[in-house]
Structure formats: C-alpha cells, structure tokens
Queue: 3 jobs
Job 1
Amino acid sequence: MSAQTEPPVASLGKYRVGETLGAGAMGIVYRAFDPDIERHVAIKTVRRELLDNGERASLIARFRNEAQAAGRLAHPHIVGVYDYGETADTAYIVMELVSGRSLKSVLEGGRIPDLAAALDWFAQLLAALGFAHERGVIHRDVKPANLLIDQQGRLKVTDFGIAHVESSALTMVGAMIGTPGYMSPEQFSGDAIDARSDLFSAAVVLYQMLTGQRAFAGASQAAVMQQVMHETPPLPSACNPALPPALDAVLMRALSKARAARYASASALSEALFEAAGAAARRDDDCTVLEARAAPCTRPSPDGSLSSLSSLSLPSSQTQWPDSTLGQIEACLAAQIGPVARLLVRRCAQRATDLAALVALVAPSIPSEKARAQFIAAFRSDVSLAASVSGSGHGQTTSLPAEDVQAAARKLAVYVGPIALIIAKREAARAHDIGALHARLAASISNPRDRELFARDVGLS
C-alpha cells in the first residue's frame, strides 16, 4: 500500500493526528496536537509498507537513532524533538512544528535569494552543524529539502534520520547514505566520515543559493558521482557575476575533494566567509570609481535592493569619526546588505554629527524589519562607542582576552544574528570576568527560550 493510500491515522499515543504535511522515502509527517500541554506538533512515522518487508527491526532502530540524535540537540536552528513512541504497527517521532517552507522551495526554478539572506541562512546552518558536531552528531544528509525557513526568516535543520552518532554501531563504514547531488566524495567512496562531510554538503547548498545552479547535476546518479569525485564546478562568480569574487576561494576550498584541504570545522568556515566578505568590501571601496557629488543616504527600493549606488562617494577629507568606530558599524551592516555597507556608512558619516544620527541614516538600508531593529538597539546604548566618536575619551577597555569575547559573540550570534559582535564588545567593557560577560549577553536576548538555550550553552545553567 502506498503512502498516498494508507488508511488515515486518528491518533498516535496521546497525540491527536490531523492532516498530512508531507511524505518521504522513509515516513509520513502529520500535523498533530498534544492535549496535555495544548501544543501543535509535527509527527513523523515510519511508512507501514517498509515495516512489512522483513527489515522492521533495522528500520525501527534507525528511526530511534534519529530521535536520539536530534533529541540531544537543543538549538534554535535545529528542529526540536519532543518525544518518541511505538505502536503495534508503527514508530513515530514528535517534533517541533515549523510554520514556513523548505529552502528547496525557495530555490525552485533557479531562484537566487539576495546575498545578505543567503549568507545569513548559511551562517545559521553552520551554527547548527557546529553545535551538532561538538556533540558527536554528523547529519549526513544536508540538502535544501532538510532546511526549513520559518515565518521569521530563521533557518532550522531537520531530518537526522541517517545521522551518525559517535559510539553508535548503527551506521557503519561502507554504507553509502545521503542524497547524491549533495553528498561528499567520501560518502560515495564509502570511507569513514566526519564533520567535514557535512561541511562539504553545506557548501554545495551555498553554491546553489549564490548561483541558482547545482554544483553537481548529472543526468544520472553515476554522472553525479563522477562529478563529485573528479570534477570541479565553475567558480561561483563565473555563474553569477554579481557575486564578490572574494567568496570564490572560500567556497571552492570548502568543496575540495580531499577532506584535509577543507575547513576543519563549521566555525573555521564561518570565519573565512566573514573575512572574505570584509575583503570584498575593502576591494570594492578601493577599486570602484563613483561620481563625486552630494547625495542622500541610500534607502531600499520596494524590492529590498539598494538603489542609486552610482551617487555614493567616499568622504574627500577626514571626518571626526575614528576608523574603528566606522569599522564596527560597517561590519554589522555588511552582514545585512553586503559589501556596499562600507561606502554607505562612510557617505552617511559625512552628514552625521553623532552616533545616533549616523545609525538613523544607515538603518533604513536594512530590508529586514527585525534585523533593522536589532541594529538600532545595539548602537542605541553603546556608551563606549559614543565616547570614542565624540572624542571625549577612548571608551572603556576590557581585561578579557579578545578571543574569549569573540567566542562569546559567536555563541550569541546564533540567537541575535550578526549584531552579536557589537553587543559582545560593548558588554565586555562592563564585565569583570567571562562569567559576567556571559550573564550580560544572556540578558540581551529577548526571547526567554533562546535566553535559556544560550545560558545552557555557555555554562550558566
């Protein structure tokens, strides 16, 4: 009996089952309701015809492995797992219900998200994978269909059904598991895998987001395997000339055939992308000749893109703004609108006399309302930055090591986005030790659940 003709399910355990949300190779996903805590959930079941083919024990074990793998990963960018159960004829996992759509649907027809959105989603994916890898879980099937975008624009990773958990004997060397177009070379060859396999697959996803094309897209699985194992895809900037060429080197290294040549961790890849984006901004600043005339600060057009870029120019003389101050604002803004942030900030700095005025001029260029609010809020209370602008002092300093502050910022970024570095530097000037810094950063997170997860991640609870 096919997944489409299976008899309707009214309940599973205590859960009241509603409509079917989707069906995959292994199971069907339903919308359901938990009457005990009055919460809507998603329930994934093993398809019944698979349980009737003599491999029931193996499939149930793999399904339970999914629940164990995802259940140990409490992270804002990983779909939460609440419960696991079995009935006489099926097994099921109760999961967080994500209202939104898959990244696959976003990319259908070769559509390309804007650069800021693509890099933001990729940063969230890397944060989720890094969190999983640190806890011994390798996803093994990173692809757009397993990446969900919720109604707030946040990315969440789902489907750990073929995940490898360290110390588990369920997945073994020699088993080729995954989705061909996104698999790493070692998955095709049957070699042992590690975190770098997930990062290769993630890089394939980023390549598609940036270019609208798949890095490996043969007419058959054999053709795809040949490409993954032996062929190098075109440079991203060759497929999409609007891309900063600085991203090419980072992405192509992440797609290296040899694992040893790739980035060793999700954080290393994330840092390399951040540095490449900064280099692209500096190069655009140095090499682009723009008409030197006065112009109002650029605002987003109705489609969210920046308009009138040809009217921007850099200041012809030094202003009262220290480079370090402008650099912090530019770094935060670049995460939202790309390399043009440097030109935009420098131009608006000519017209602003204090920090509040500069932030007010720059903020409208951020298309996302949520990101714009975070940007404004971060600088509104930044006393140390304001002091450096006015020239009345050099601002407060911190005795905390810079690497500790940056590490804390990376953890905070999972919950508040690219503004995290600005917040971390500000709070570091007011914290006497790393514990106090973590406490201050936790207080900056408005969502109670996210605040709790951050506190747990940094060891506050």
Job 2
Amino acid sequence: MSSFQSTKRVIDAALEIPIVPGWTNLGYRIRRNLWAWGDPASGSMSGSWALVTGGTSGIGRAGAEGLARAGAGVVITGRDPERAQAVAGEIARATGSEVIGLGADLSHLDQAAGLAKEFMGRLDHVDVVVHNAGAMFAGYEEHDGIERTQVLHVLSPFLLTRRLSPLIPNSTRSRVVFMSSGGMYSHGLDVAKLQAGPAGYRGATAYSRAKRAQVALAHRFAERLPGRAVHAMHPGWVDTPALHESLPRFEKTLRPLLRRPEEGADTLIWLATAAAAGTTSGLFWLDRRPRREAMVIGAGSRAEEEALWDWCERITSAY
C-alpha cells in the first residue's frame, strides 16, 4: 500500500474517533472527495430486481431511486398501499426502470408474511433485499404479542429474508442489506431485553436494541446464505421525516450537519451494486467501509446471536 493510500485511511479512520464529524454531512463529503467515489453505471443492474422496504420516503426512497437509476427493477413497500404505488410511479418516471409499490405494515407479522407471498407470486427472483423500513415509537404497543419495534426491525426482516431466500440467486451479485443505526452502539445484544414489557419503556432504547439485533442477524444470515453477501450498515445522521417526527430536538440542533437522504443512501446503493461489496459478508458499514461494531459497550456473544436466531425462528414460524 502506498503512503498516500495509508494517509487516506488514517484520515478516514480519524473521522470516527469523535463520532460527530464522521456521521454528519461533513464526514460524508470528506470521504467522498478523499476516495473519489463514483456512482454505479447506468444499466449496471439491468435484469436485476431489488426489494426496498420503507421505500416511500427518506433513505429508502433515495436508495430505491438509486437502484432504479442503475437499471434494476425495484419493489418498494410502505404502510399505505396508495402512497407506495404513487411513489413507485414517480420513481419509474424519473428513472425509466420498472418500479412496483406494495402496501405492508411490517410492524405486523401477518403483513410481512403476506408481502413475501405477494412478492413470490409476482417475481421469480430477487437479487437485492434491503431491510430499510423503520420507526421509533413514543409509547409501548404490542403487535403479535411482541413490542412493535422488535416486530418491525427484527422479526419481519427475519421472516422476509427466510421466505425470500429461495428467490435470491447463489451469486456474489446477490445482496441482503440491513439498515441499522449508529444508535446500536449504545446497547449490546440481549434477547431477553428485546422481549421486555411496558415497564420503563423508552422508544429510543427499544429502537437501539433492535438496531443492534439487526447487525447480529446480518452475521447469522451471512453464515446461512453462503455465496451471497449479507451486510448491515448505518447511514450517519440523516435529515428524514422519521427523524423529524421521532427526535425533533435532535433534528433541530443538528440540522446544518445532517446528511441529505441521498447521502445517507449512498452506502446502501454501493453495497447493492459494487463488485467489492460481494467479496465479503457479515460486516457493518458506514460510508463504503467496514466499521467496528462496538465502542464502549460490547456487541454481544455468538451464543446470544444464536439465541436471537432461535427466538426469531420460533415466533415467525406461526406465520
């Protein structure tokens, strides 16, 4: 490695030490210029199909549009079927690719199962699966007997990946991406806490625990889907409708430093399209590079990850 390349790596890594610069639009712009990032070539995903959950706004919509511009057919989901279809039409007109909008509230496992069934009835393969749908809830509510944050972020992605796995080609061009969050650094994996009841409920805590669980699922699916690349990532701090709704004070304070949805979706698109992203599996990414999965708090043991898998398998088997 040349000294110039080594220097660039040092600069990139240094952005992570104080956290704030690396997760803002400054970190994104510095890295983009530092590494001279390009965008996927138009038509590079021709013949491929991608599923992007939560694709009607924010990072999901930006990611879906980026994949469509690369030539992929894209299926997006949203809680409102009419809105999902309307946004799909907008993306299709903007990109020239085929885009399908399907309605599914993935905080309900029966709707996740229904989505998998409908997808398999329409298409015979899916090359890229992006688990992007997410929300932070202010109050405790159970869906399917489980706190809804865990259904939305953990159980539904598990169910969808398992059900759709026969349609994912055994190829390094095939990708599964979990859209996690930097919030996962504040909690290690603890399956018992994913099942916590309403006492002491905090939406931000439930969200962070779920995002940690998504990274653990990426590890386990990477082993169980050989020949296909499975990754988790976080997008940095991004200005989205969901952030405005769930953390308005945070959004107002950091607004000048927040990334645009297109910047937050950049690594998603890269992980889905770049040849280099198919050479490894089970890693955690930010700004097109693997990042550490623990800072102060440990990530969690392999035994806990296997317990997570068993829990997901037991709950979703009923749907």
Job 3
Amino acid sequence: MLFFAMAMAIAQQPGRDVHAPISITNVTDEWPGWAQVFETLTLRAGFNTTTVIVGTTLLGLAAGVIGVFALLRKRSLMTDALSHATLPGIGLAFLAATALGVDGRSLPVLLLGATVTGVLGVVCIQAILRLTRLGEDAAIGIVLSVFFGAGIVTLSYIQANAAAGAAGLNHFIYGQTAAMSVRDAALMGGIAAAAILATLLFLKEFSLVCFNDAFARVDGWPVSLIDLVMMALVVLVTVAGLQAVGLLLVVAMLIVPPVSARFWTERLWLLVVVAALIGALSGYLGSAVSALLPRKPAGSVIVLTSGVVFVISLVFAPTRGVVALSWRRLRMRFRIAGDHLVEAAFEQHGREGNGGTLTEAQLARLAKLRGWSAWFRVALRWMLRRQGDIERAGTTLRLTEHGRARGARVARNHALWEQYLVTYADIAPSHVDWSVDQVEHVLSEPLIAELERALRRRGVVIAAAIGGGNA
C-alpha cells in the first residue's frame, strides 16, 4: 500500500504526464558532447578512465596477436573451453586464500587459481582425445560444461557460506572493467609485450606447426613443445582478460580480431599485425564508448565493437569481402554469358555465313537455354555493345570484328577441350559437352598450347579459325 501511495503521489505531480512510464531510478544515458568525446579519445578524461582504456587496448593487442595462431591451429573452440574452465579456479582460490588467512579477493591469487583450472581443463580435453574415441568437439563440450557447472556451484557455495569479502567474484563471469587498477593495466602491458616478443622469436616455428604439423614432426621439430608454448600464451591472455571482459566474452577477443584480419590479407606476418591492430582498436573504442555511456558495460561494448569491425571486414574487405566476392562472381557470370552469346553468333555465321547475326527469336531461345532473366539479357547486350563485341543491325544483333575474333577463340577452346576429353579420357562425344561448356571460358594461353601439342601427338589438329565446326 505504501508503494502504491508513493506511485500515485508521483503520478499526480503538476505538469506530469499520467500516461508516461514511472521509474524510481533514471536508467537513461545522456549523449556526451563533442568536447567530452575528444577528451576521452585523447586520454584526458581522468586517471581512472585513461587506465581502463590503456589496459583494454593492451589486452586487445595481445589477444589479437595470440588469437591468430589459435585460429590457424584450429584451436578457437579450445579457447572457449579454457575460459569456462577458469571459473572453478577462481572460487577455489578464494576459499583456499581465505582458509590460509590471505585476502581472498587478491587479483593475483584469483588469477593463479584460474590459470590452474584452465590448464587442467585443456589437459582433460587432451586426455579425452587420447584415451577415448570421442571427437574434439565432444571433448570440448564435455569439459566446457562440466567445469563451468563446477564453477557456478563453487560460487553459489561461497555466496551462501563465506563472509562478505566474497562479494564481487561473480563479476569474473561478465567482467568488471571499471575496477581495473594501474597494476592491472601494467599486467596487460606485460602480457602484450610477452605476446609480441614470443611471436617475433617463434614466428617461423608457430607458422610451421600451424600450416603443416605433420611435416614439422617428420622434420624433427618439437611439435608438442611448440603447441605447449602457443597454448601457454593463450592461457596467459585468457586469464588476463577475465577482469576486463569476463570469461564468457574473453574468447571473443581471441577469435574475432584474427577472423576479421583474415579477410584483409593472405600473408602471415601482416595477418598478425592487422589482428593486433583490430584487437587494440576494439579495446580502445569499446572502453571509450563505455566511458562516455557509463550505463553500458565495458566488456560487452568491447566485444560489440570487435563485432562491428568483423562485419565491416566481412562485407567490405577488398579481396575476401562479400561485396568484392559478389562483384567478381557477377563479372564472371557476365563474361561466361558473353562468351556463350558471341560463340553462338559465330557458329551461326559458320553455318549460314550471315556475318554472325542473331535475331531476337534466336536470342530468346539462347536465353531460355542458359537461364538468363530478362534484366540479365538486357544488361548483357549493353555490356557486349560497350565492349565492342556486338552492334545493332535493325532488329538483330551482329558481331563486330572484335566479337568474331572472340567467338572464334571461344569456339576453338571448346573444340580443343572436347577433343582432348574424347582422345585422352575416353569419354563418348555425346557426354563431353556439359563439361566442356564449364571449362572453355577459363583456359589460359599456356594450357591451350599444351592441349594443342598433346592433340598433335595423337594426330588431331584443330584449325586456327573455326566456322561452326571442328577440324
């Protein structure tokens, strides 16, 4: 009744909209001004804010560097199991420290416990893989769920039975970036330096094991030891990121920046550099946004920032991005369709001597055979006219000199590959047309010369110019 009376009193205040939602606590964010944004981005928004931004930037840098090798070694899910396996270690370390009279909430103590159970989780996964017939995904799922469940039970026991000093341990699940101290930021810097130094010292060994571990083992390299060093670095970064983004999100810092960087480059050293920059940028911008909007948790914002970078890389990367890939596929489709059209017109010229002319009816039949839509046919005709392969002659389309040369080349490639399959692969002539139709557009000049030499050795000669038939 008291709460109802208070709500009615608030609702009846003068000038208040009675239909507006009532909230005791204001949970809205105020948008910062440009001056505040500039001060935050230039590390002048206060000592605590600067410490958090620097610490998370260094964590993102280290995670990006080490995550590359976890990705290439196909150990990304292993980092997920490792992060979940740290939770029982945090609870057990608190209980052990409290029993020994030590501060149970000491960060080094908690991180030591997290490291022990994290390594134990990885060892359990390896033991399951070696001693059973289970696959890696099943082993990771078992260890991840069991260790995380044990951690939840441990934290529940601590909250029910321990003293008030246990408050805040659950923040390791989701992270508590705002509580980062200068010592924590220095720890992040040390880990980032160790990750960069290890990468510089063992780049050759890491790349050899990641790309061809069988060759490395045969060649005498200590593959198990190199794997151990890589996993030790992963453990180091994972444990360090527990306070910043939490055990549920630290795996994203190890996976998302390297995956994003993979869209931009094919070279390993550049992949490491780009992943480090994306990780550092995610930590920097994520913590800065969280500082400008205090009600948004920093760990989640950091991961969302890296997710935005991933989406940008996925869509707009110049070689592997969706836009570039779609554009290349569209260009290839138009090129192949153009080859089909000029080849059909050239063969028509060979049969009828009409200069390579296609009527609208013939073009419609060709479009139906090839599955071209109306808009695609219009765009194809425009593209071929722009390239100078066809020209309009009344209501028909006619090949230009350039178009006839292109049609002759495509028809000759068709005949070469067809004769090669019939002669060397013992395929019946009635069964080679579909295969030839897929290959004739991608034959290079050296391959064409090799086909000619091979057929010439069998006494098969394809004429330099074909008028709708094979020589």
